[in-house]
Amino acid sequence: GKGMSGGYEDGGRGGRGGGSGGGFNNSMDMDAGYDRNGGGGMGGMGGGAAAPSRPAGPTKGLVLGGKQKANKFLESLRAEGEAVELESKTSRPSAGGGAPGVSAVAQAGVSLQIEEKLSVILKKDGGLETMELQGTMMLEIKSGEEDAFIRVAVATGKNDGFQFKTHPNIDKALHASDGILGLKDPNRPFPMGSPLGILKWRYQTRDESMVPLSINCWPSVSGGESVVSIEYEATESFDLHNVVISIPLPPLRDPPVVNQVDGDFTYDNRRNVLMWDIQLVDKSNRNGSMEFVVPAAESDGFFPIEVNFTSNKTYCDVKVDSVTRTTDGCPVKFFGASTMVCDSYQVV
Questions:
Q1: Does the keyword Secreted apply (predicted)?
Q2: Which of 88, 125, 140, 210 has its CA 20 to 30 A from that of 167?
């Protein structure tokens, strides 16, 4: 169950683009197709596209930071495959329309975005209640109509326990036998102008070792104070970006006293939430801890803890190998990236 790594791009030679951890040759490519305009034709999983409107957590973590921190945040977004313009003030192109000028050229081809949404409920006394992920591959034609007559060859690993589903218009037998996603009628084009979910997958487990980030929170009362020790432990399978662990607090007159923290923290006094921010969890910091003190309170008051992060690697071992036209068999340029996001991730 090791995940698949991020970005790929192919110049139309039909060869594999190296999975370079979510990166693209041109940052504008990345605007392609997370269904930001609400499209997505696949029903059950909400089109698999809502999540990359950024999770609410990380932006709030910027409240105390200055420009440098904001820029670091944008850099890490860019690193995981978001088109973020650090220098220029140009407004983003909509997912449907090409950007003005040069970037419209950069986006030509077939966009294939892979996204997984994670739903996890961890128990505060240890153990996993549920973990479910839902993935989608979204296709969007970003070039001429001739590139809408295509087939997509997909490489998948073992993926034990995953259930796959193709869009109703996709030839199910061809996918099952050859790993090729093509329309039942090869003489029909894929729809233009908005992303279409062509493949979905689901995975459920209660195996705690599969959880990407586990949280251990220990409130203890001593002498009129609650001392809260909280630690995270991350699996080696994923690097996690923009990790925000949000701990609810009892109503306070004064901010909590943070004795120690790996990373940064922000206290939101309107919502009575302490947010623990770790920009990046990788092999240098698979474990981390924080300790803070508030006036004595019931330990249940520090739950549910909400967790948010993204990764440019997915649980499902799936990637695009090639895209070819059904009309003349020629290879078509394609690009995209893989992202995992949290739909709902709680310690209760």
A1: no
A2: 210
291-332 pLDDT, tens digit per residue, is: 999 999 999 999 999 999 999 999 999 999 999 999 999 999
10 Å CB burial of residue 47 (0-12, 13-18, 19+) is: buried
Q: Report residue 42: phi and psi, to 5°.
A: -115, 25
What b/e string do you get for 63-83 counting C-beta neighbours within 10 Å, with b at 16 or more?
eeeeeebeeebeebbbbbbbb
**Domains defined for the chain, CATH in brackets:** 4-208+312-347 (2.60.40.1170), 210-310 (2.60.40.1170)
Q: Which of 251, 238, 274, 333 is nearest to 60 (CA)?
A: 274
pLDDT of 50: 36
Q: What whole-number distance in Å separates Cα of residue 212 and Cα of residue 232?
A: 10
Q: What confidence score (pLDDT) does residue 281 get? A: 98
Q: Is 74 helix (H, G, I), strand (E, B) or coil?
A: helix
CA atoms within 13 A on the CB side of 236: 1
At 191 the three-state DSSP class reads coil
In the chain, the amino acid numbered 283 is K
Q: What pLDDT was estimated at residue 115?
A: 98
Residues in the chain with pLDDT values less than 50: 1-2, 12-70, 81-105
Helix (H) or strand (E) holding 77, with range, is helix 67-79
Please give the backbone phi and psi of residue 9, each rounded to the nearest 5 degrees, phi first.
-155, 145
Q: How far apart are CA 235 and CA 286, in angstroms?
A: 7
pTM: 0.72
The DSSP bridge pattern shows strands 264-268 and 196-205 to be unpaired
User: What residue ranges in the chain does DSSP mark as E strands?
Assistant: 4-5, 8-10, 110-122, 128-141, 150-156, 163-166, 180-182, 196-205, 213-222, 225-234, 240-248, 257-261, 264-268, 273-281, 287-295, 305-311, 313-314, 318-325, 334-336, 338-347
